[in-house]
Amino acid sequence: MSERGFKLFYLGCHLSASKGFKHMGEEALSIGANTFQFFTRNPRGSKAKQLNLPDIAAFQKIAQENGFAPVLAHAPYTLNPCSNDLKVRDFARMVMADDLAIMEHLPDQMYTFHPGSHVGQGIKAGIELIVRLLDTVIKPQLSTLVLLETMSGKGSEVGGRFEEIAEIIASVSFPDKLGVCLDTCHIYSAGYDIVNNLDGVLEDFNRIIGLRRLKAIHLNDSLTPFGAHKDRHAKIGEGSLGWDNITKIINHPLLCRLPFYLETPNDVPGYAVEIRALRAAYKS
Ligand code: FE
Ligand code: FE
Ligand code: ZN
Hints:
Layout: H1 3-8, E1 11-14, H2 21-30, E2 36-39, H3 53-65, E3 72-74, H4 86-103, E4 110-113, H5 123-137, E5 145-149, H6 162-171, E6 178-183, H7 184-190, H8 198-208, E7 214-219, E8 221-222, E9 233-234, H9 243-251, E10 260-262, H10 268-281
Parallel strand pairs: 1-2, 1-10, 2-3, 3-4, 4-5, 5-6, 6-7, 7-10
Antiparallel strand pairs: 8-9
Residues 183, 185-186, 231, 233 line the site of zinc ion.
């Protein structure tokens, strides 16, 4: 792998934040990653960890020296910004506001969240609630880019269609603070055929949302078949997408400069194996 190739291929995986940012930076480097994703807090959304400014500074030095892509903070996936229960929505708003305030101590990174489930209120009502929440937590001076994740469309999930993501972005007060995190497992499961028609899906994305909004890829294989509307990640090459299609995705001219984050069912050594294989398959 050439020095140049390494720098241009931004590839990382989901890491545990329990030992802090410097540890995540070092762990990423040790497995050939030059970015990573982490949860801002545990899935139940309990208190975020105390801020440790020296730890953040130590990480920033590692990131700068090694040409890291922005890291991706992930909101607890149990939050529901468009619940029919006011208390649940308030909790999502509180957690997101708090997460974004903390992220400003590590400026210019990215924060992704699942748009949520409308639980029977309908897509339109769900989108309105998401927009309302985003408008209370996103301030014009925010340095963090907030990403809506494309979903598989299971149950009453919002964000399984590109149109839904586009409508949220078009409706908020500060659309330039928003971007999209495309999850390969989710969109394939949602019915976007990136195996047989990757170019067509990207054309749709561009027409409906705009490729300039695409800021990150969650690179996952899928345990379930095309269009299953399930959310079951598989290791790279062990699912319905398959190795050849995954390598087409990382090498696609419209995608190859974006940061890729693995969320495959792996421990750190397992991620190291996938990262090594993907780097070897990266041609761009
Ligand atoms: Fe996610
Ligand atoms: Fe994801
Ligand atoms: Zn998922």
